[in-house]
Write a structure and sequence with these properties.
globular; mainly beta; seven-stranded antiparallel sheet; eight-stranded antiparallel sheet
């Protein structure tokens, strides 16, 4: 019976692993949230998100129904009440991190700097005035050039503080990189920390800067992804 139970558990583990598509690397994967009608972490790590406010489950970039979430910027109140909270602890990261996410930004968000994902003041940010994306995370800021609105865009931010290098990719191409003083640990956690949560679709501290548009397929890593 013990051997049968062990085999059963192993099969369930293999089935859970098989659900992760090939485009999501599993090495260093902290969590993967495909937003298939919910905010569950489908990496097998159990870091399920909690939904707050009125999010709409919509078609994703491939046209699959109920496979992305949309923030209605006309009713989000700058995102103060509409967001997803992710249960991620700082101790999961030492000196490296990466974030991969698909976004679809409306032409007229309520905030000048709508937030895709972040923790406290740190995060991936859209600049409404320049139609670009920026990232305060890890070792520093990586601004990008103008990007299209109201179409799906793939953003990847990587940071390796041991080398001091942060990189920002848009649709698979390196958009910008920043080089700062190397550090053995992630240096920017203290900026706006104060027990701040990880939130999707808003900044987790006032003035929130809520998102307007769609977000899908978030993957977070405790290592710097390579191209």
């Amino acid at each position: 019976m013990k051997n049968l139970l062990t085999l059963t558990l192993l099969c369930f583990g293999l089935m859970a692993q098989a659900q992760i598509p090939s485009y999501v690397p599993t090495n260093g994967l902290v969590g993967w949230w495909p937003f298939n009608g919910n905010a569950n972490d489908e990496s097998g790590n159990g870091r399920n998100g909690s939904i707050f406010g009125n999010l709409q489950s919509v078609n994703d970039r491939n046209g699959l129904s109920s496979s992305a979430f949309e923030w209605n910027n006309n009713t989000s109140g700058f995102g103060s009440n509409t967001y997803i909270r992710l249960p991620i602890n700082d101790n999961l990261f030492i000196s490296e991190m990466s974030i991969s996410v698909w976004v679809w930004k409306t032409n007229s968000p309520l905030s000048d700097y709508p937030r895709v994902i972040g923790r406290g003041e740190n995060g991936i940010i859209a600049d409404r005035l320049s139609s670009s994306y920026k990232c305060f995370f890890g070792c520093g800021l990586s601004p990008t050039s103008s990007t299209p609105t109201e179409s799906w865009v793939h953003l990847v931010f990587t940071s390796d503080c041991s080398t001091g290098i942060s990189k920002f990719y848009i649709n698979g191409l390196l958009a910008n990189q920043n080089i700062s003083t190397p550090s053995s640990v992630i240096t920017d956690w203290s900026f706006g920390k104060n027990g701040a949560e990880w939130n999707v679709g808003r900044k987790s501290v006032g003035a929130y800067d809520g998102w307007g548009g769609k977000i899908d397929d978030i993957a977070i890593y405790n290592r710097a992804l390579t191209a």
